[in-house]
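I am still getting used to backbone structure tokens and would like to learn alongside you. To get us started, please write out a protein record for me. Start from the sequence, derive the backbone structure tokens from it, and show both lines together. Once you have written the record down, we can walk along the chain together:
***
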Amino acid sequence: MTVRSGASHLFIPGPTNVPEAVRRAMNVPMEDHRAPDFGELTLPLFEDLKQVLGLVGGRVFLYPGSGTAAWEAAISNTLDPGDKVLMSRFGQFSHLWADMAERFGLEVICVDVEWGKGVPIQDYEYILSKERDIKAVFATHNETATGVTSDIAAVRRAMDTAESDALLYVDGVSSIASIDFQQEAWGVDLAVTGSQKGLMLPAGLAVLGVSDKALDASKTAAMPRCYFDFADMIKTNDAGYFPYTPPLPLLHGMRASLDLLFAEGLPQVFERHHRLAEGVRRGVHALGLELRARGPEWYSDTVTAIDVPEHVDGTEVCKIGYHRYRTSFGAGLTKVAGKVFRIGHLGDLNEVSCLAALAAAEMSLADAGADIELGAGVAAAQEYYRKANARLAA
């Protein structure tokens, strides 16, 4: 076996790199999660996560699990079997959310959209104006499979225009803490994310922001639930505890992660992600390649999905990157398997991180048979980053 030196490089859209300060914060001995002072750790976490979500009222729940656990908690606590819901499917993760809704026995009206576009706002408004009994509207803010971000504020405007009283559910798993998210201002009732993306932690904590309206709905909803029951969480969370044993190291890591985000400033975090993403996009275009996102209005600032040339296998690009250059990229999923590969650029990273991603991508593409000019993408990103940082320093 060949021993190779140096660090491996992670450019998938989650899990993301864990900052050293967060990793150290998680290295703690086990402690009493019923101790009288345990709330000194947990209660500020609930409040600070509300700030990250842009949530004023309502409350935040933390469940052991991935973002999918928060999906399940959102549905099971607020809806009844047979309720009519409106969804759209334009990537693997919006597809999985629709699949979950169907498994829960909901009546799903699902609008299928080209994989490369996002939430179909006009279709939503039309359907909501005709189907007056829709109880819930679902929107994937950032479709990780295709590198597409949708306009959630526009979804709320469409609901208001149609005079819909439905609850608005938003999957922000790969956007929250990296792309601006305003739960209160956008009228989002249930916002879902996980610890392993913009929050820069290992997977294991599901985060769910819940509006006052959704909390009220949970009091009468008839969907079966137990582990995810809001009522059980509220009884214990109010004093800083949980109805079961929480993942203690992750809570300490969350404290360190939030401290890093607030020290940089959330507006600055969002600006950094946009700046880094734009450099990656310019690098990809300089190589003569196209993005899966079908227009700038859909571009994601956390993950870029790149269409490979017809004679190139995107899965092979990922394998080459991993085995030859110790770099992990995201592979194409289901409908776009082999047709794209993805560069994740969210969480704890900077300009040089993204240049490394582009350099490894260029070599992997060339080795997979793509006719590209080595260095062209890196050079384009370098030029953009230099100018962008000069403006910041002025």
